[in-house]
Write a structure and sequence with these properties.
The chain is built from 30 helices and 2 strands. It is mostly helical. It has a two-stranded antiparallel sheet. A hairpin with a 2-residue loop joins β1 and β2 (248-249).
Length: 582
């Protein structure tokens, strides 16, 4: 911006930079704005040099965050100049200072169109850059057809056509209706796909990616050409050295091609066979090397190829090869590769025919639970949840139970919920279900939601054979003296209140004495539940005078408690139990 011969501009920037505070800076800026305004209003005509200088100053002030509400016409006047330096300044100022809804943009459209249809490629490049930066519905409606014509002109330099393709993409994103299907469809794109220049082809592929996402059926004729281009790249044919990245031919174009192919339905037999051959070659040529940059490019292509294989739903041999590669990747040192390996393996595990292949890597996946990276631990947990079935549920849930006390707090709630779902879904028998769930509630502590222990209680209530066993399990845990979290107090309180009388070798008073020490340290909702449990104990053992005295003492204490719910229960249970025992 600060050209060496624009001393006034350089001096102004220097003055602003040395201002000691914001007030001094604002005074200097206001002084300069007044000077520029006076020059623009002056009757004497400004030359191109002076106009450029003052417009640059305006832009600099605008970029400092100050409002500039004049000078737009002077900037637009520079766009009409036939000198590149002046036209460049005009385009830059318009692109930066005016947004797509600015009223002055309508005045620029004709100047921009004139530059687009001119034979000066530098002017065309400036116009395309401005259109892409400003965008807007009016620009799209007025200039989209001209941009399309520039893109279709094979005689222009590649840099101009690349700008045209990306400019058209920008206009399509802002206003899809501006790119009409009858003037811009599969025939035009098919013609562009014959392009030999890799840079232009990459820009065209970005455009096709957006067009095909909006209308995949309409652009189906382009599938064959995309496969041919991909095959040419993979076999390293006709690729200039400047588009080879660490001996990999244009990895960015390969990735875009694979993403485009995922938007279309599975192609016909011949094209499909050709595509599978290309993918087979990609999968075979993916070995880990020492160069980090080459590794990143190779893995980016590989993961996109795996996504395409899943989209094609091809034969199991190719998918199994993908799983084998992903199994290697989840064991490498690079965390990004491990993350992507786990994520893509999770997508493959959803395919029923591939589940057993994914399960072969169960040990590696379980090891990822201890990875230092929290995002990798999350992906490993998600994958274990997806790949779990009747055959490996016991092993996976056992490993997760062992992992639960040491896992990160940020994923503990998610881990508890997933374990509860898996335990209920793949319970081999009811006894195993109760054992696992009570241990889960014990170890999960405050991360166990009410819904989880509700399901345990529901299962115990509905299965008579479980009632005595569950009561014994809860009693033994409370009697062990280990710290008891509140969810375990709730679950034990409910089960022992309902079924504690089934423990014939345990006195009801002993059950009460195990539960009540947790009463004072529990929340009011848990206290309400425990009061209900005490009332049930009395109902099952009305002859136990010692128990009756202890429970009545608790009820009497809380008849005047500040918590309304707790007070109401204490009063009602006092009356009910007195009547039941008389």
């Amino acid at each position: 911006m600060t050209s060496s011969n624009m001393r006034g501009l350089s001096k102004f920037i220097s003055d602003v930079r040395v201002c000691p505070n914001k007030e001094a800076e604002q005074m200097r800026v206001n002084k300069e704005l007044a000077k520029i305004r006076g020059k623009f209003k002056s009757s004497s005509k400004l030359g191109g040099y002076d106009k450029k200088k003052y417009v640059w100053k305006m832009l600099y002030i605008f970029m400092l965050g100050y409002e500039v509400d004049f000078g737009h016409m002077e900037a637009m006047g520079l766009i009409s100049s036939q000198k590149f330096a002046e036209k460049q300044v005009g385009y830059i100022v318009v692109a930066v200072m005016l947004n797509e809804s600015h009223e002055f943009l309508r005045l620029v459209i004709n100047c921009v169109r004139n530059d687009l249809i001119s034979r000066n490629e530098s002017f065309q490049a400036l116009a395309l850059t401005c259109i892409a930066n400003v965008g807007g519905k009016e620009f799209a409606e007025a200039l989209a057809s001209d941009v399309q014509r520039v893109l279709m002109m094979n005689t222009l330099r590649p840099v101009v056509r690349k700008k045209a393709a990306l400019c058209l993409l920008r206009l399509f994103r802002k206003n899809p209706d501006a790119v009409q299907s009858h003037t811009w469809g599969p025939e035009q794109v098919s013609q562009l796909l014959h392009e030999k220049n890799i840079g232009v082809l990459t820009a065209i592929m970005s455009l096709l990616l957006a067009l095909a996402a909006a209308d995949p059926i309409g652009f189906m004729p382009c599938v064959g050409q995309c496969v041919e281009i991909l095959e040419r790249l993979v076999r390293k044919q006709d690729i200039s050295p400047e588009y080879t990245y660490y001996h990999i031919p244009s990895p960015w174009l390969q990735i875009k091609l694979m993403r485009v192919l995922q938007l279309f339905p599975v192609p016909e037999d011949n094209t499909r066979r050709q595509l599978l051959g290309v993918l087979q070659r990609v999968l075979q040529g993916s070995e880990v090397v020492k160069n980090v940059y080459k590794n990143n490019a190779m893995h980016a292509i590989l993961f996109e190829a795996i996504n395409l294989v899943m989209h094609l739903d091809s034969e199991q041999e190719l998918v199994a090869q993908c799983v084998a590669l992903l199994g290697k990747f989840i064991g490498v040192r690079e965390p990004n590769i491990r993350y992507l390996g786990l994520e893509n393996m999770g997508r493959l595990a959803v395919m029923p025919e591939m589940l057993h292949v994914v399960q072969a890597h169960q040990e590696k996946i379980l090891t990822s639970l201890t990875d230092p990276d929290i995002s990798i631990r999350r992906r490993a947990l998600d994958l274990l949840f997806v790949m779990c079935d009747q055959s490996n549920a016991t092993a996976i849930i056992g490993e997760l139970l062992a992992y639960l006390p040491t896992c990160s707090v940020s994923i503990r709630e998610e881990l508890v919920l997933k374990m509860a779902v898996l335990t209920e879904r793949y319970a081999s028998d009811h006894i195993w279900y109760v054992d696992v769930m009570i241990e889960l509630i014990e170890r999960g502590a405050e991360f166990v939601s009410d819904e989880i222990w509700y399901r345990v209680v529901q299962m115990v209530v509905n299965e008579e054979a479980l009632q005595e066993y569950s009561a014994r399990k809860c009693y033994d845990f409370l009697a062990s003296g280990d710290p008891v979290a509140e969810p375990m107090v709730k679950c034990s309180g409910y089960i022992l209140g309902e079924f504690g009388h089934l423990l014939h070798d345990v006195a009801p008073l002993a059950v009460f004495k195990l539960l009540h020490p947790h009463f004072l340290t529990s929340a009011s909702t848990t206290q309400c539940l425990l009061l209900s449990s005490y009332a049930k104990m009395l109902a099952h053992a009305p002859k136990e005078d010692s128990l009756h005295a202890q429970v009545q003492k608790v009820f009497a204490k809380y008849q005047t408690f500040v918590d309304v719910e707790l007070q109401q229960r204490a009063v009602e249970y006092m009356v009910i139990t007195k009547r039941a025992c008389t």
